[in-house]
Amino acid sequence: MIDLTFLDPVYSTAQVSRNHGFMVYDTLYGMNSALEVSPQMLSRHVVSGDERQWDLSLRDGLLWHDGERVLARDCTASIRRWAARDGFGTELMAATDDYRRRTTAPSVSG
């Protein structure tokens, strides 16, 4: 058995920290037992024709433990924190207002 000694899945590579993170933190998208991905914290998303830009809208009623509303800037802060440790995430997200987020995937050329 592996002890959970580090709770932060962003800064730990331990699988037990990752699993703990999925149990206690919400995610924009979730996956069911058939490995199908669907929006979890989102009410909808719109993808551009070239599939590089995604506009994500948070669903109504998302609250923090203290009753405050979860806003797009909260999600952006979490994504930026993750992106600082993961090269793929560095250009993904920028909040457009309190309830929507715009994602532009980096160009894959060459």
List keywords for this structure.
110 residues; alpha+beta; 6 strands; 24% strand; two-stranded antiparallel ribbon
Q: Biggest sheet, in brief?
A: 4 strands, antiparallel
Q: How many beta strands in the DSSP annotation?
A: 6
Strand residue percentage: 15-25%
Mean pLDDT: 79
Overall geometry = globular
Work out the helix count.
2
| SS class | alpha+beta
Strand order of the largest sheet: 3-4-6-5
Compute the gyration radius: what is it? 15 Å
Helix/strand order, N-terminal first: HEEEEHEE
**Could you tell me how far the N terminus lies from the C terminus, measured between alpha carbons in angstroms?**
45 Å
Helix content: 10-25%
Question: Which spans of ≥5 residues are poorly predicted at pLDDT below 50?
Answer: none
Summarize the structure in words.
With 110 residues, this protein is an alpha+beta fold. The protein is built from 2 helices and 6 strands. It has helices at residues 15-24, 72-83; strands at residues 29-31, 37-39, 42-47, 53-58, 93-95, 100-104. It is globular, with a radius of gyration of 15 Å. The relative contact order is 0.14. The mean pLDDT is 79.
In short:
By secondary structure, the protein is of the alpha+beta class. It has helices at about 15-25, 70-85, and strands spanning about 30, 35-40, 40-45, 55-60, 95, 100-105. The strands form two sheets. Strands 3-4-6-5 form a four-stranded antiparallel sheet, with helices on one face. The protein has a two-stranded antiparallel ribbon with strand order 1-2.
